[in-house]
Amino acid sequence: MRLPFTVLALVALVLCALLGHTTTHPASAPTAARALGASLPEDRATRVVDEFHPDRTPGKDGARPPLPQPAWGGRAIVHLDSMPKSLCYAVESSGAVRRVLYELHETLLLRDWETFEIKPDLCASYTVEDRLVPNLEAAESEEFGAITEDGDFWVITPVSPENRMKAPRRVSKTQVARIERGTVFTFRLRAGVKWHDGHEFDARDVAFSLSLYANPDVRCDDKRFAYADIQHVEVVSPSVVRVTYEHQYFMALMSLGDLFILPSHLYDLSDPDNARADPEYHAQKRAANPDWKASPAEQAAYVNENPHNRAFVGLGPYKLAQFTNEYIEAVRFDGYFAPQQAGYLDTLRWRAIPDSSAAFRAFLNGELDFFNSVTTDDYFSSALDADLFKQRAYKGWHETSAYWYVGWNCLKPKLADPRVRRALAHLFDFDEFRDNFYRGLARQVTGMYLPSSPAYNHDVEPYAYDPKLARTLLTDAGWYDRDNDRIIDKDGEPLVIEILLQSGNAVGRAFAAKLQENFARAGIKLVATSLDWAALSQRRTAGDFDAIAMGWAPPFESDPEQAFHSRWGLAEKKGSNYIGFADPETDKLIDEGRAELDPVKRAAVWRRLHARVYEMQPYLFCYNPPRKFVMNRALRGFQSFALDPNYALRRWYYAAGTPGTRAQAAQPK
Amino acid sequence: MSFVIRRVLWMVPTLLGITLVVFLAMHAVPGDPGDVVLGSDAGSQPGGVDIDAAAERIRKENLLDAPLALQYLHFLGPFDLSPGGHEWFGGSGAQPWHGILALDFGREFQRADVRVGAEILRRAAVTAPLALAAILLTYLIAIPLGVWSAARAGTRRERLVGLLLFLLDAVPVFWLGLLLVLAFGATGLGWLPVIGLHDKDARELGALARIVDTLRHALLPVLTLTLGSLAFLSRQVRGGVVAALREDFVRTARAKGVREREVLTRHALRNALLPVITLVGAIFPALVTGSIIVETIFDIEGLGRYAYEGLLARDTNIVLGTTVVSALFTMVGVLVSDILYAVCDPRIRHA
């Protein structure tokens, strides 16, 4: 799979959420802090329901009181950190849109939050097949199926019932140009799935949604690359759609599974059910040319400016009811195809408050039921110990995949030597900072993967805080104080490192201050520069930095190529490996992992890659702090998951008997 | 009349100058709008997102790679010079007009379906009433307070009030706002709502109840804005009245036997009020565009916050749009105060 060199998998720059708005802490009660830290799970996928709820505090025997009987109905108001202009994810990418769509929409496939398995959602089943590409001069046609090797032949066995080949075939290897494994995806859609406006969902919707990424005028450029390698999409029948990728790519299935699907009857100008589709005009056009379709530019404008981008019509258990400048409100959709996975609450409201301290005050004033960007300061503040708070709310934390790191610019001669970077890692006391700054509520990471995913290598031990060893490593690398100015030097250049931080990044500032102190003792001068996001991004893109603090929220599985492969980090051509890290061993592991289609074997490669990257230290991997939240005490059923969105609104409920709720699932008519 | 026309005409080159300065300043600031594309909250979708592809479109659609002069002409209008612009300039003709001369501030860089002009109007509709209310309240408090201080100038009580006013002036607005929230919100007395301009269930309220609800919500933000400019204005009034009290006509009035109360209100205040009234022209635009802090504390989607968001995103269209609007406010404010001056004081004639 060719990817544009510009592809940045590192984009989920969750710095704001991760690093913002905290102030430095004095050291406090390290023992208590350690206890909190110890309660952070290393790799558990799911956590106890209502783990932090006061009514669920374990008794003397360690058992938690049972959960209340759930009631149906009621409303929850959840904080949103920015107000989207539309809910059309194809044209508006943001974490906020994605958060809302988890309840308003569905995808073809879903990764189970608890088991991490990929399971069908909008499709009833799916098949992945290999593709045989014949030689140009061969008389063979392109076929797909399960392809196995048999001496000088390839044997193709059809797997999906829709395959036009009905029996296995043998093809001589001389006739074959190449085999593309796992490139043909057949999705059989669930029957009886309805859009929120009552229209049937079918294969046409899927094919249309995929076609947008090939239309250059649709404003979906940031997601185009995931579907750029699609060779063709075929509507086999109203309930079956087949997608063929040009080249093998291990992320293809999840990209398709995660596709944002639009209702073609509201967006496709060529759809006979589209109100804008003028039947007479269409008939005229089709009489002249049976394959007539609206022009791509016309179609793109219709998607970009479609009123349904805001008046969203989806497939999820909640449908849009109000979209104001302050909030988005969704109510239960009675026509939802899987009532057993619909929610208890009747109304969900996302209230956008961009400023997180204003949002915290909004929670304290009863305007929100859930707010999960509580700063460490606020979390341990007296406001949350007040009776007023405890009567109606409680606090806790949930998992997130977001972590932050310091990227070293490996293209700078002073940081090119891995021994130097390793020495820098030995110069920071991660446990101490975790206990003092985060008060124990953070986990140190040693790699780029989601800590609870199989790709994360838990055998990698973080480098210990060891200034002596650091000095030895630096001396070995040729860095010692030759001119007695207390700063170590090499080739006449003193070791001065400038670290770039995003302004307002309190964690980064505290971290840099500590680092500065430790570096100074080892004879390294650290200069911290705070810049606003735009200026920081510009210097990062230009490679004009020594060190830079960044964050990322890895999904369950991600492609390490763009961030760490030397292909994207050349000095003469800036790319997504913006630190310019180049290590042949790393490149080899990345190529090996990307070619492996078996997820278990691939995870094993990624674990080796994790260990190798940590050893080479292109990043100083720092922390994965959980998201701290405050929640309305009356809302029950909170559970934290390692996968985005980290908690399931559909499982929240009010206890039976709460005013305004009812005992049965269906709304009494 | 000709004076007004002349002044209005003079506003055109002034406005052009302002746009040019802001335009150049925006380009001198480090940071590229393309680099900010997805900001800090892009979700974690499989495979990540291709920000450079999105940045590329932003650059192309907004002519960011074009020479500065061309970009400025595009911004001035009335022709759209982008690839989708006027046919005369090699565009596709899809959207021929653009720029301030066409009364079009363009679209937001990151949310291309949002027109900056429409968004400014929407936000000004929130900010302007708050600012007007704050001005009204400021004057209602500042004038009597100023007159009282002038009449009692030098007494112990007046000095105490003066000290308090100076303290108030020294307190940063954000701190004042937070104190008000603490005091009147649920964490304190619990009398007033502290977030937004509407209750969460405002939709279910009747028309009258909804008005009351909005007023209750607006109270603390307006109070914060008022307290911010109160000290300055009341000291102005005091100074004016004190100076007027030393004038000959006051002595004459007193000698005539006019009662002290009337001397203060009729003679001294009327003369002292002139400069104070003209201050409206300066305070109003400052309140409209300088309300970022209040808007952030109380979560109000106003103009000030819009300008700030635009600056962070290096969105030239937003920054220039809000600047032009606030420059217009200021210039109209100055013009109005000059006219008021002439109307109030017969001695002033603009020949």
Question: Secondary-structure map with pairings?
Answer:
The complex is a heterodimer of chains A (669) and B (351).
Chain A: H1 15-19, H2 30-38, E1 70-71, E2 75-80, H3 95-104, E3 109-111, E4 118-120, E5 123-134, E6 143-150, E7 153-157, E8 169-172, E9 176-189, H4 203-212, H5 221-227, E10 230-237, E11 240-245, H6 252-257, H7 264-267, H8 279-288, H9 296-304, E12 318-323, E13 327-332, E14 347-352, H10 356-364, E15 370-371, H11 376-379, H12 387-392, E16 393-398, E17 403-408, H13 413-416, H14 418-425, H15 430-436, E18 443-444, H16 467-476, E19 489-490, E20 493-494, E21 496-502, H17 506-521, E22 525-531, H18 533-542, E23 547-552, H19 561-564, H20 584-595, H21 599-616, E24 619-621, E25 623-624, E26 627-632, E27 635-636, E28 653-655
Parallel strand pairs in A: 2-14, 21-22, 21-23
Antiparallel strand pairs in A: 1-28, 3-4, 5-6, 5-9, 6-7, 7-8, 9-11, 10-11, 12-13, 13-14, 15-26, 16-26, 17-23, 17-24, 18-25, 19-20, 27-28
Helix pairs in contact in A: 14-16, 20-21
Chain B: H1 2-28, H2 51-61, H3 68-76, H4 116-151, H5 156-170, H6 173-184, H7 207-245, H8 248-256, H9 260-278, H10 280-289, H11 292-297, H12 303-312, H13 316-344
Tags for this model:
heterodimer, A: 669 residues, alpha+beta, D-Maltodextrin-Binding Protein, domain 2, Dipeptide-binding Protein, domain 1, Dipeptide-binding Protein, domain 3, 3 domains, seven-stranded antiparallel β-sheet, five-stranded mixed β-sheet, 21 helices, 22% strand, globular, disordered N terminus, B: 351 residues, mainly alpha, 13 helices
Helix percent band of chain B: 55-70%
Q: How many strand segments of chain B? A: 0
Extract low-pLDDT stretches of chain B: 39-47
Strand content of chain A: 15-25%
Greatest interface (CB-CB under 8 A), with counts per chain: A-B, 83 and 51 residues
Helix and strand run of chain B: HHHHHHHHHHHHH
Biggest sheet record of chain A: 7 strands, antiparallel
User: What's the helical proportion of residues of chain A?
Assistant: 25-40%
Q: Compute the number of structural domains of chain A.
A: 3
Rg calc of chain A? 27 Å
